[in-house]
């Protein structure tokens, strides 16, 4: 699939991404050298700026060439975590090439090891962030992405078109829709219908569209009636029926002409679980070292704002359904739980909202300081204690209330296999705009598709969500 996407490069997108990569990597190299230069009074030594500039040229060339070879230009079809993985691979390989050149030219001793390591780390980070910014900003424009035709029945095509339009960064842009079993005459979410096969072939010939998305089961297109698809479209994407397995880290296998698909539940693998726990603990300890003054300040504000304890303790469902005490800064007036039913009985709209989302946006029980804490998710800082105790992970599905267990249905069987997290996929992708059932689906997606890269991406997204004050 990646080879297919490389054959349909969008020149504008490629130009933007190459420019962004050059700027971000160059900035990373200069910043690394500047940091080392500032530390000369403390660490001694010197910075050879001429060598830094010469190395920068080679380093940028290596990165652009390797990024091209690894399908990062334009990188359509890559989800964010896959792009992050490829970026780190490219930057690491380019760093090795640069190190070999410095060694062969006997310049290794003149190039600071600190600058070399910082360059590797900052280049990967800035390159990722630069690409996220480019895709987030420019994917809104019509010229972004690969134009595609969607073929299939109306009921199966609608959700596919909706997802393709929502996930703009993929670059799969549906422009026409064709239903082989009906003469569609109404657009789907702005995607124009095509009435018959001949009209479609004419449109494709004129517009040079090379990609088609088939939404019906593969068996539907196996008949000789659809052989014309192979003559018209060189690139065909099949939408597989939804299965209760991960979709992010799927590997295809050819079994003597028969296509097989392999997927894994990484988060249920013991070795992967240990890696995740170490990752979460390191991040949590680092965050505690940085945020302890904020803890003290927020505790004082909660105490001065209203009567009641500083911390609020609530029973939550943990791994395997075991109950644990979840800690938060108190954001409500005393006896808030007892007053909930009074609020819902007095306001039918609030009752409907609570039944759908299991929370209230404008909750009258929330204190003044509590509103601020909730907006920036500062009320959840004490849950770092839960992470250290082993009740929670830093990143994972959201912790559910015991009374929500019956509503979770079959999803509980998957979600409760792992520790809940302070932040997670639902918190950064859905937040308050999703219903309770959509929240369950997002939590299941996280568990099914977990990797350390997904956790890194969620960490980055969490920072962005908190800066924007959207809460978690």
What does it look like?
- There is one protein chain.
- With 472 residues, this protein is an alpha/beta fold.
- The chain has three domains: 2-138, no CATH class; 146-241, Rossmann fold, CATH 3.40.50; 270-331 and 366-467, no CATH class.
- 54% of the residues lie in helices and 11% in strands.
- The chain is built from 19 helices and eleven strands.
- It has helices at residues 2-6, 11-38, 40-43, 49-69, 80-104, 113-138, 154-166, 197-207, 228-232, 270-305, 336-346, 348-357, 368-375, 383-389, 405-408, 411-415, 425-429, 436-448, 452-467; strands spanning 146-151, 172-178, 192-194, 211-214, 235-238, 251-255, 258-262, 311-317, 323-329, 393-395, 421-423.
- It has a five-stranded parallel beta sheet with strand order 3-2-1-4-5. Strands 6-7 form a two-stranded antiparallel ribbon. A two-stranded antiparallel sheet has the order 8-9.
- A hairpin with a 5-residue loop joins strand 8 (311-317) and strand 9 (323-329).
- Helix 2 runs antiparallel to helix 6 and helix 4 (49-69) packs across helix 5.
- The longest helix has 36 residues, at 270-305.
- It is globular and about 75 Å long.
- Mean pLDDT is 85; it is low at 1-8.
């Amino acid at each position: 699939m990646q080879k297919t996407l490389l054959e349909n490069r969008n020149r504008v997108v490629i130009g933007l991404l190459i420019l962004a990569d050059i700027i971000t990597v160059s900035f990373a190299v200069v910043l690394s050298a500047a940091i080392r230069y500032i530390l000369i009074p403390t660490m001694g030594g010197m910075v050879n700026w001429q060598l830094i500039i010469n190395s920068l040229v080679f380093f940028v060339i290596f990165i652009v060439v390797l990024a091209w070879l690894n399908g990062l230009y334009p990188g359509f079809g890559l989800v964010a975590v896959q792009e992050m993985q490829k970026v780190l691979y490219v930057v690491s390989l380019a760093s090795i090439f640069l190190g070999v050149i410095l060694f062969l030219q006997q310049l290794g001793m003149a190039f600071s090891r600190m600058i070399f390591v910082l360059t590797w780390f900052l280049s990967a980070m800035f390159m990722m962030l630069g690409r996220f910014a480019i895709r987030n900003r420019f994917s809104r424009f019509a010229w972004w992405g690969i134009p595609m035709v969607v073929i299939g029945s109306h009921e199966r095509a609608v959700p596919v078109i909706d997802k393709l339009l929502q996930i703009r960064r993929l670059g799969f842009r549906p422009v026409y829709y064709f239903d082989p079993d009906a003469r569609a005459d109404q657009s789907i979410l702005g995607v124009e219908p095509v009435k018959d096969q001949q009209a479609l072939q004419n449109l494709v010939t004129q517009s040079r569209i090379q990609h088609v998305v088939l939404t019906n089961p593969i068996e539907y297109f196996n008949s000789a009636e659809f052989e014309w698809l192979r003559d018209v479209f060189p690139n065909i994407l099949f939408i597989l029926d939804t299965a209760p397995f991960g979709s992010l880290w799927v590997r295809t296998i050819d079994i003597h002409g028969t296509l097989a698909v392999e997927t894994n539940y990484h988060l249920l693998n013991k070795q992967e679980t240990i890696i995740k726990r170490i990752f979460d603990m390191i991040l949590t300890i680092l965050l505690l070292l940085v945020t302890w003054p904020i803890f003290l300040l927020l505790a004082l504000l909660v105490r001065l704002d209203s009567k009641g304890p500083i911390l609020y303790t609530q029973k939550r469902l943990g791994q395997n359904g075991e109950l644990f005490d979840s800690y938060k800064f108190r954001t409500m007036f005393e006896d808030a739980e007892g007053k909930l039913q009074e609020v819902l009985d007095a306001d039918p709209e609030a009752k409907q909202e609570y039944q759908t989302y299991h929370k209230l946006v404008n909750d009258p029980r929330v204190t003044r300081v509590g509103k601020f804490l909730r907006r920036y998710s500062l009320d959840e800082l004490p849950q770092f204690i839960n992470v250290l105790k082993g009740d929670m992970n830093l990143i994972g599905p959201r912790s559910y209330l015991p009374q929500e267990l019956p509503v979770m249905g079959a999803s509980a069987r998957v979600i409760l296999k792992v520790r809940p997290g302070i932040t997670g996929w639902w918190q950064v992708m859905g937040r308050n705009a999703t219903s309770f059932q959509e929240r369950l689906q997002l939590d299941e997606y996280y568990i099914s598709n977990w990797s350390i890269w997904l956790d890194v991406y969620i960490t980055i997204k969490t920072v962005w969500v908190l800066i924007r004050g959207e809460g978690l």
